[in-house]
Amino acid sequence: MFKAAVIGQYIAGDSPIHRLDARTKILILLAYVIALFLAWTWAGQAALVAFAVGCLLCARLPVRSVIRGLRPILWLVAITLVLNALMTPGPVAYRILGFITISRPGIDFGLQMAVRLLLLFMASSLLTLTTPPVELTDGMESVLNPFRRLGVPAHDIAMMMTIALRFIPTLMTETERIMRAQAARGADFEHGSLGQRMRAMVPLLVPLFVSAFRRADELATAMEARAYRGGEGRTRWRQRHLGAADAMAGAAMLALVAVLVVVR
């Protein structure tokens, strides 16, 4: 169905994860992200991986597409792994060229950070893949509502975050279209050294920025034509209510936290 399921994309479905309230999914994601950086043992990492895989299976998403969607951050994962392996002090595991050392704690810490980044991206993708944009905006606004007393514009922040997420797959599709058009005119993006391939990507930036600004202008015009004036006095067609499934999802997250506390 999809080449790669990327963050910001929505895949319609009727799975238990799809039916959860958007507020529940947002709060579980926040708790999961916090748990990611509190688990410093491989047993804790295994529990986090099992929870993410379980959510992926419950969501009934195309697993291959979700895995392919992780490709854009592999370079960041690789850089994180290498830097931690080189810069973390400890007993030397490998020595390269006589003066570059890789420590055992660095390898362990780098691998844990790499797993964290992959799980963070996967969990964020699951939220957008299973939540319609309108529900995601309403959910974010509802979660941010308590901060309105502090002057936080909850609706505006929720709207900006949702629009930004929705633009990611659009811009990726536009980038692929521009690359194909330039490849048809003789551009080569796959061969040559790393520097040559990076220079070949430069001509993509101008049409991509022009397309992005044009889409942003069209979106602003469409919102103004529909008399959009922010969240004041705004009503909702569908009123969402928390149910038993949301309580069970919250209990599953609490169980995961309990497991992390035990193995810590």
Q: How does this model look, in words?
A:
- This protein is mainly α and 264 residues long.
- It has two domains: 156 residues, no CATH class; 80 residues, no CATH class.
- The protein contains ten helices and two strands.
- Strands 1-2 form a two-stranded antiparallel sheet.
- Helix 2 runs parallel beside helix 10, helix 3 packs parallel to helix 6 and helix 8 crosses helix 9.
- It is globular.
- The model has no long low-confidence stretch (mean pLDDT 82).
Based on CA atoms alone, the radius of gyration comes out at: 22 Å
Order of helices and strands: HHHHHEEHHHHH
- Helix percentage: 55-70%
Count the domains. Answer: 2
Summarize the structure.
With 264 residues, this protein is mostly helical. The chain has helices at residues 16-19, 22-36, 42-58, 63-68, 74-87, 104-129, 133-144, 154-184, 194-225, 244-263; strands at 92-96, 100-103.
Topology:
Elements: H1 16-19, H2 22-36, H3 42-58, H4 63-68, H5 74-87, E1 92-96, E2 100-103, H6 104-129, H7 133-144, H8 154-184, H9 194-225, H10 244-263
Helix pairs in contact: 2-6, 2-7, 2-10, 3-6, 3-10, 5-6, 7-8, 8-9
What brief labels describe this structure?
264 residues, mainly alpha, 2 domains, two-stranded antiparallel ribbon, 10 helices
